[in-house]
From TrEMBL:
This is VOC domain-containing protein. It holds the Pfam family Glyoxalase_6. Residues 6-120 form the VOC domain. InterPro entries: Anthracycline_SecMetBiosynth, Glyas_Bleomycin-R_OHBP_Dase, Glyoxalase_6, VOC_core. CDD domains: VOC (cd06587). It comes from Gemmata massiliana.
């Protein structure tokens, strides 16, 4: 059985992504550069980083619906995890995106919360 290896990221919708990112930087110490909306919270080795980021409220990245956040989970084998979810009857997107830092896929839990799966390189 495939299992999540860790949290790859936490993403929040914001009316003003830069202002909210600055608030988290100034009041909680989230490592976000002043001109950015994202930062790396932790990194314990290759592919082990956890990203924190704000997105505009009208982003489609979180999927349809009113969700104000999305969690990214690190996995060892994206294809196996997606197949496992499909076999269990979960709603899984057909698209998979490949980047130099890994592969991404998306699914939705039974309550309609979209989540992202990341297989680091």
């Amino acid at each position: 059985m495939e299992r999540v290896m860790g949290i790859g990221g936490v993403f929040l919708k914001a009316r003003n992504p830069k202002t909210l990112a600055a608030w988290y930087r100034d009041h909680l110490g989230v490592p976000v550069d002043p001109d950015q909306t994202h930062g790396v919270l932790a990194s314990s080795g290759p592919g082990e980083m956890t990203v924190w980021s704000t997105f505009p409220t009208d982003t489609q990245y979180f999927g349809p619906g009113p969700a104000t956040f999305m969690v990214n989970y690190r996995v060892k084998n994206l294809d196996a995890m997606l197949a496992q979810l499909r076999a269990a009857g979960a709603q899984v997107e057909d698209k998979v995106e490949d980047y130099e830092y890994g592969r991404f896929g998306w699914a939705t839990d039974p309550e309609g919360n979209r989540f992202e799966l990341w297989e680091p390189k």
